[in-house]
């Protein structure tokens, strides 16, 4: 009787494998099925599949995909990211191992699956300027300032980043962060206080890989103190991802690099020499008067209390003096009684 020997390794069918999916492919999606055969019989011919890590290859995808051990079905295990892949390497490589069931000596083989990744619209626009707080190469909560004393009607506003690490005027720039980016358009999302949207115009200009916001004040108006524009950068796509930046209108003080928020009407009054401190002087005078009255009242109260205490003290002294019997009188009485007894 001839006994079968485990002398044949498993062999993949139709290898190598390659497929293409979008980076937004949901977790659990089936990609393809790998198959292998083993010419040995019985346990030696039973085969199982597995995925192993291979850090020696570019863009190893061992952690991102799963495989059914018996059927060889490959599925998405984790979220994919087109942007994290290097230029010219927009794919993952999965190393699949097939092993037979030999009880003593096991034989195996492996093959690689190349999974090409296409870009999906999973990132929105991002503002960019030096000094902004960044996370994953994007500005978080971007903020700009405008000097209200430098505003000219119908002229482009000049911006400074916040924090202002350069000290120079900068442009407001944004771009879509997808690998294949969409165009970006700017607009006024809202103002604070509200109702001032129509007093400003916003144009979008392409500058290299970025888009620039050109903002102008087109109507004369006395802006309220602490005025803010929320500027929206929106990508031109069905998803319409967008990002919002805050533009604060401030007065930049050149001395000591101090800056404070101020309304344009206050700035104009200071330039034309109008009196702007009357209410402040009145308030200071009122506070001084009240303080003086309080001091006088406290002083009078203390004097009154001291006077009452002194009067009580004097009265008690007089009463004590009138009730006390002189010592000489008591001594005289004893002497008289003793003299009478001798008689």
UniProtKB/TrEMBL annotation:
GO terms under biological process: homophilic cell adhesion via plasma membrane adhesion molecules
Keyword Ligase: no
GO molecular-function terms, A-Z: calcium ion binding
Entry's localization field: Membrane
UniProt keyword Ribosomal protein present: no
Keywords: Calcium, Membrane, Repeat, Transmembrane, Transmembrane helix
Membrane-spanning residues: 290-314
Domain of life: Eukaryota
PROSITE patterns assigned: CADHERIN_1, CADHERIN_2
InterPro entries, per the entry: Cadherin-like_dom, Cadherin-like_sf, Cadherin_CS
Pfam families registered for this protein in UniProt: Cadherin
Domain annotation Cadherin: ranges: 13-127
GO cellular component: plasma membrane
Protein known as: Protocadherin-15
Species, as recorded: Mytilus galloprovincialis
